[in-house]
Design goal:
There is one protein chain. The chain has about 280 residues and is of the alpha/beta class. It has one domain. It is about 35% helix and about 20% strand. Strands 1, 2, 3, 4, 5, 6, 7, 8 and 9 form a nine-stranded mixed beta sheet that branches. A hairpin with a 7-residue loop joins strand 2 and strand 3. The longest helix is centred in the first third of the chain and has 25 residues. The relative contact order is 0.20.
Length: about 280
């Protein structure tokens, strides 16, 4: 007679192993929080978000979306400007009140206090970037270029999903590939934040439209992984990875990026040093 085979019940984790796993997850979260505090002192990192032309909005804020096209030096932002535009005629800039034209479901899901804080952050970033080379005007007039800006897309990072991906062993490889697999830029993941803007530049004396731009920025949790050898790779990793654990960090990164881009393009087109 053949020997009977004993069937063993499926193994279940012991209470001690569960406690150890729980401690490991909590330890990871604490370590992330500590690193995040240190990363916050390193200053803004503008390379942890990337343009995604497929998500650029057409909210009706601009006048001619068909004329938008990739612009040299604009890092993925789509723009158009009047032929023969001479920005050397402008030495002052007026930053109009930033408006928000989100879809109804987006606006209802955002705390108004957080929304105001984000808009104030963007305005402050623009002032900081432009003030060294141009006077910040309070009123329109001759020599004033007016910035009209609309935030047209605002999606927070799903922090709980980012934490879960960090706690699971070997999740790095799966998450790194999940961006392109879901139609997002390399280095991103499906749960990271998105931010969209539309910008109009007008003459402060005539109200003539001088140029228009639109862009959508996507957070990249693994920015350094797709930019090997990039200058400041360590800071890129810290900012890109750690910002995935804050709901609005990528939005702030996008605002810093746009503020710097506008200031840099103004400097080039006006023929001045941006640090003036």
């Amino acid at each position: 007679m053949a020997a009977a085979h004993r069937v063993h019940p499926p193994a279940t984790p012991s209470s001690s192993s569960c406690r150890r796993a729980d401690r490991r997850v909590r330890g990871t979260v604490r370590s992330l929080a500590a690193t995040l505090l240190l990363a916050g002192c390193a200053g803004p990192a503008t390379n942890v978000t990337v343009s995604d032309p497929a998500r650029i909005t057409r909210s009706g804020f601009l006048t001619d979306y068909r004329a938008l096209a990739p612009s040299p030096g604009a890092e993925g932002t789509l723009c158009w400007r009047q032929p023969g535009l001479d920005l050397k005629a402008y030495d002052k800039v007026l930053i109009n009140r930033i408006v928000v034209t989100l879809k109804a479901d987006q606006q209802q899901g955002i705390d108004p206090t957080e929304l105001k804080a984000l808009v104030d952050y963007f305005h402050a970033a623009l002032v900081k970037a432009l003030q060294p080379q141009m006077q910040i005007a309070e009123q329109p007039g001759p020599g004033v270029i007016v910035l009209r800006i609309a935030v047209t897309n605002l999606v927070p990072t799903q922090v709980s999903r980012s934490l879960l991906g960090t706690a699971i062993p070997y999740a790095f490889t799966a998450e790194l590939a999940s961006g392109p697999a879901s139609g997002r830029p390399a280095g991103s993941t499906p749960y990271l934040g998105e931010t969209g803007i539309e910008i109009q530049f007008t003459d402060g004396a005539t109200n003539r439209i001088l140029a228009e731009c639109a862009d959508a920025q996507i957070g990249r949790k693994y920015a350094a992984a797709v930019e090997e050898g990039a200058e400041g790779a360590t800071d890129t990793w810290v900012k890109g990875y750690m910002n995935s654990f804050q709901a609005w960090a990528y939005a702030q990164n996008a605002f810093d990026k746009w503020a710097k881009l506008i200031a840099d393009r103004f400097a080039v087109l006006r023929g001045v040093n941006p640090a003036q």
